[in-house]
Write a structure and sequence with these properties.
Blueprint (H helix, E strand, L loop, with lengths): L1 E7 L5 E6 L6 E3 L6 E5 L15 H14 L1 H7 L5
Antiparallel strand pairs: 1-2, 1-4, 3-4
Amino acid sequence: MILYQYRCTGCGHSFEALNNIHERDTAVCPVCAHLAEQQIAGGHFSLPGTDTAFPTAADKWAKRHRRANRDNLIDLGLPVD
């Protein structure tokens, strides 16, 4: 079973539903019982070190890259942790 996103053709309600791959095109709206069409949804991914909502992940990313780039930092005269 895969989670798909749908929008009702009757009332416009958006919802998510679990369907198998063969039944993914349509679903029944839980609000008005009309048919709903599958919507294209954005993917779920994250870019390392760029999410300000999780500063610890950004700090971990920065430290890892600073360690990997230590020699260049020394050559530039920048502080090294």
